[in-house]
Design goal:
Elements (H helix, E strand, L loop, with lengths): L5 E5 L5 H9 L4 E7 L4 H17 L4 E3 L4 H9 L2 E7 L10 H8 L2 E5 L22 H13 L2 E3 L5 H10 L5 E2 L16 H9 L3 E4 L14 H15 L4 E3 L10 H8 L31 H10 L4 H19 L4
Parallel strand pairs: 1-2, 2-4, 3-4, 4-5, 5-6, 7-8, 8-9
């Protein structure tokens, strides 16, 4: 069977149009965010909405919980949808909810978003004391049940401690190297070296605030960065986590960045005082543009097998190793 096409992070305003575009683009699996600041019960409401979409559009999408579902998606011409949290808020202060969330089908959870959580520090905090006592306990529980630790929005020390503490490889599903573009959300060489040496995965982000040149970033610049990262860390630990927020209204950014923790507006890094979504690069507007990205990676000098891995084969291997109990 041909290598799969996997995008390991999207937060689009999902709709039948977006699902149809996934099929047009040949996307076999997508990790979708189902919680930013939601409580457990609020997260369950989001699961209900997805269940209705699965019921209404079974010819386009279905719920994925294991790597086998990626192959099923390829065989049936559909897209497998995997669930993840960008914040540990749905487990509240109850470690028992880690296993419950896994039983509900969740496969990724960030230990923090931009702020300090009960588990770890977010990248916008001035100080980073590392994993908390609860954080270390939750890491062990996530390892046990097969819930992937995601440190995409976490601060440096917390991320390094998560890599060192986890018995299983972790993921940074959507970020880019700080040496290419020094956004606060991008990751240092020290973090990326530790991540990949421990068998973890980096998903390259296409969100403009994470790109050199922002919305004007060129395909050539992005793909040259991926090629350099492959030279530094090995192509086998790299994938795509586009962070596609297609069709979302600007009001959603306020929920993503602010939630309920402040009365003010956090405009976010690189937003120049505007709370809305920046335009995507012209060469990646939606799920139909993965072919353009693949061509760009080949043109940047990566081999076909390396590109097959980055476009999804590496994530499939990671899914096979990560989603089951240990």
């Amino acid at each position: 069977m041909k290598p799969p096409l996997i995008d390991s992070l999207q937060y689009a305003n999902f709709s039948p149009k977006v699902f149809a575009q996934m099929r047009e683009g040949g996307v076999d699996a997508v990790h979708v965010t189902i919680a930013y600041h939601e409580s457990f019960r609020e997260m369950v409401l989001n699961l209900e909405r997805w269940n209705r979409w699965f019921e209404d559009h079974p010819d386009l999408i279905f719920k994925g919980t294991s790597a086998v579902d990626v192959r099923l998606a390829q065989e049936s011409g559909r897209t497998a949808i995997f669930f993840g949290f960008q914040n540990p808020s749905p487990i509240e202060d109850d470690i028992g909810l880690v296993e419950i969330c896994h039983q509900l089908g969740v496969r990724f959870m960030q230990l923090s978003y931009n702020n300090q959580s009960l588990l770890a520090t977010g990248c916008y905090e001035a100080e980073d004391p590392g994993l908390t006592r609860m954080g270390r306990a939750v890491v062990a529980e996530m390892n046990r049940v097969g819930l992937v630790i995601d440190m995409s929005h976490s601060a440096e020390r917390s991320t390094l401690e998560a890599i060192a503490t986890s018995r299983r490889p972790i993921a940074i599903t959507h970020a880019n190297p700080h040496w290419w573009h020094p956004a606060l959300r991008n990751k240092s060489d020290a973090v990326l070296s530790a991540l990949t040496q421990a068998g973890g995965m980096l998903g390259f982000s296409l969100y403009p605030h994470h790109l050199k040149g922002g919305s004007d970033c060129t395909l050539e610049s992005f793909c040259a960065m991926v090629a350099e990262a492959a030279g530094r860390y090995g192509a086998a630990q790299l994938g795509i986590g586009s962070d596609l927020c297609q069709d979302q209204p600007d009001s959603v950014v306020e929920w993503m960045r602010v939630g309920r923790w402040t009365k003010g507006i956090d405009y976010g890094e690189g937003s120049a005082g505007h709370a809305g979504f920046p335009p995507m690069p012209s060469w990646f507007r939606d799920n139909r543009d993965f072919g353009t990205l693949r061509e760009g990676l080949l043109a940047a000098g990566l081999g076909e097998a390396e590109v097959d891995g980055i476009m999804g084969g590496n994530w499939l291997r990671f899914y096979e190793e990560s989603f089951g109990p240990q």
